[in-house]
Automatic annotation (TrEMBL):
This protein's UniProt keywords: ATP-binding, Ligase, Nucleotide-binding, Protein biosynthesis, Transferase
Protein name: Glutamyl-tRNA(Gln) amidotransferase subunit A
Domain Amidase: from-to ranges: 25-468
GO biological process: translation
Function text: Allows the formation of correctly charged Gln-tRNA(Gln) through the transamidation of misacylated Glu-tRNA(Gln) in organisms which lack glutaminyl-tRNA synthetase. The reaction takes place in the presence of glutamine and ATP through an activated gamma-phospho-Glu-tRNA(Gln).
Lineage: Bacteria, Pseudomonadati, Pseudomonadota, Gammaproteobacteria, Moraxellales
A GO molecular-function annotation: glutaminyl-tRNA synthase (glutamine-hydrolyzing) activity
Sequence similarity: Belongs to the amidase family. GatA subfamily.
Known EC number: 6.3.5.7
Native organism: Acinetobacter gyllenbergii CIP 110306 = MTCC 11365
Stretches assigned to coiled coil: none
PANTHER family per record: GLUTAMYL-TRNA(GLN) AMIDOTRANSFERASE SUBUNIT A, TRANSAMIDASE
UniProt keyword Disulfide bond present: no
Catalytic EC class: ligase
Catalysed reactions listed for this entry: L-glutamyl-tRNA(Gln) + L-glutamine + ATP + H2O = L-glutaminyl-tRNA(Gln) + L-glutamate + ADP + phosphate + H(+)
Length: 492
């Protein structure tokens, strides 16, 4: 079979169960595609072919014995921020270029337990700081829709791998948009769950009060299958919430779009940098949802201007603390011939961290320093609460809130935006993390350069099923999620 990579997760699951193909064949098919096509996309940092084939054989045995999980034998790629026992986990950093974790992240362990086959680890901005994946120590990943463009970030490798059909699904993480924005840039569906829904154990920390893992895939249905595996309470993560998990697949038709109240924040559609094509596609998608029975309600989100400054204070502050563990002593990179301990710390960190990571450590350390702490960090925390309250007030009147996922489509590789220009590109995604809410990106068409545009739907706490269900129904009535980049149509 040459077109196994075109099958959805449900079709793959059925095909494996009914022995139309084996996990071994499926895995070999993907490994062959990776070998031939990934040199152009550069989404993988590490391909774990040997382990993948062993896992595929085990899945085939379980399938034969009739005791396999729904997803047994289906391949996936993990963002290189999830610790994988015995396999390098770099977080896109020279600092961790030689780091092999002694344990699996909970997300990885759950995927393994379900019999999913790990194809490898995919590229990302260093320590998840960035929006292009260019901040990776190993270099940039290409957007499958236009190879001279970025796939977005920080989960750019995850997005590019799925969009080029080099993995049917992937894990990502989202601290301020890193699942939704690359999903938007690459024409995919990506879900950022409620803070605490997916365990952060073994997920290398960027900003711990904002970080959340989630699925990236072609469709809401595919995302639902992966959510069923990775969501849930974990005693090893004290911020993971002990609350019953939905059956995201069974609930796909659970929310009626008919009568659904969708809030359209006035402030969001007047943002200066909002691209005309992005605006038009998002508005068309809302029109479609309206035709399907949704009610569009204009709302106010008055704190919009505070999103970027608040996030870019809190996230670097937490990062400066989290990244202090990388000191050249316990983990990863160590400078050559240190003259004393201070020299070891300083040079290991200066040589091991890239420019953007160093910028954030500096900003964060400054914001947390005695004398500035109240003026910056404490103030930002207060504004964070106001941003959350703004959303909660909006949810008294609407079921979900619509927005673009990003104000533009994918940038050119090397566009070299200034840090502030880059940060402003995160305007639509940051507040969701500050408030801890779930949100989803769905592909809704293309701009004049044939680059994908994404619609973001933000839900109230624990509304993952509702968000997946809305997008699923939208996808039953449209075909944007079925469009494939030319490179994905290439047969290996
Ligand atoms: N682009 C944002 C940042 O650089 C968000 C990244 C993320 O979600 N990990 O911080």
């Amino acid at each position: 079979m040459t077109d196994l990579h075109r099958l959805s997760i449900r079709e793959l699951s059925e095909g494996l169960k009914t022995a139309q193909f084996s996990s071994r064949e499926l895995t070999e098919h993907y490994l062959k595609r990776i070998a031939q096509i990934d040199p152009k996309v550069k989404s993988y940092v590490t391909v774990t072919a040997e382990q993948a084939l062993a896992e595929a054989n085990a899945a085939d045995a379980a399938l034969k014995a009739g005791n396999a999980h729904t997803l047994a034998g289906i391949p996936l790629a993990h963002k290189d921020i999830f610790c994988t026992q015995g396999i390098k986990t770099t977080a896109g950093s020279k600092m961790l270029d030689n780091f092999i974790s002694p344990y699996d992240a909970t997300v990885v362990a759950k995927a393994k337990a379900a019999g999913l086959v790990t194809l490898g680890k995919v590229n990302m901005d260093e320590f998840a700081m960035g929006s292009t994946s260019e901040n990776s120590y190993v270099g940039a990943t290409s957007n499958p829709w236009a190879l001279d463009h970025v796939p977005g970030g920080s989960s750019g490798g995850s997005a590019a791998a799925v969009a080029a059909d080099l993995a049917p699904i992937a894990t990502g993480t989202d601290t301020g948009g890193s699942i939704r924005q690359p999903a938007s840039f690459c024409g995919l569906t990506g879900l950022k769950p409620t803070y605490g829904r997916v365990s952060r154990f073994g997920m290398i920390a960027y900003a711990s009060s904002l970080d959340q893992g989630g699925p990236m895939a072609r469709s809401a249905e595919d995302c639902a299958y992966l959510m069923n595996v990775i969501a849930g309470h974990d005693a090893k993560d004290s911020t993971s919430i002990n609350k019953a998990v939905d059956d995201y697949v069974a609930n796909l038709n659970g929310t009626a779009v008919k009568g659904l109240r969708i809030g359209i924040p006035k402030q969001y559609f007047n943002v200066a940098g909002l691209d005309a094509d992005v605006k038009a596609r998002v508005e068309e998608s809302l029109k479609k949802l309206e035709e399907m029975g949704a009610i569009l309600v204009e709302i106010d989100l008055n704190m919009t201007e505070a999103y970027v400054p608040t996030y870019y204070l809190i996230a670097p502050a937490e990062a400066s603390s989290n990244l202090s563990r990388f000191d050249g002593v316990r983990y990863g990179y160590r400078c050559e011939n240190p003259v004393d301990l201070m020299d070891l710390y300083k040079r290991s960190r200066s040589e091991g961290f890239g420019a953007e990571v160093q910028r954030r450590i500096l900003i964060g350390t400054y914001a947390l320093s005695a004398g500035y702490y109240d003026a910056y960090y404490v103030k930002a925390q207060k504004v964070r609460r106001l941003i959350q309250q703004d959303f909660l007030k909006a949810f008294e009147n609407v079921d979900v809130i619509a927005a673009p996922s990003a104000p533009t489509t994918a940038y050119k590789i090397g566009a070299n935006l200034s840090p502030t220009e880059m940060y402003l590109g995160d305007i639509y995604t940051l507040a969701v993390n500050l408030a801890g809410l779930p949100a989803i990106n769905a592909p809704v068409g293309f701009d004049k350069d044939s680059l994908p545009v994404g619609l973001q739907l933000i839900g109230n706490y624990w509304s993952e099923s509702q968000l997946l269900s809305i997008v699923h129904q939208y996808q039953q009535n449209t075909d944007w999620h079925t469009k494939r980049a030319a490179i994905a149509e290439e047969n290996a």
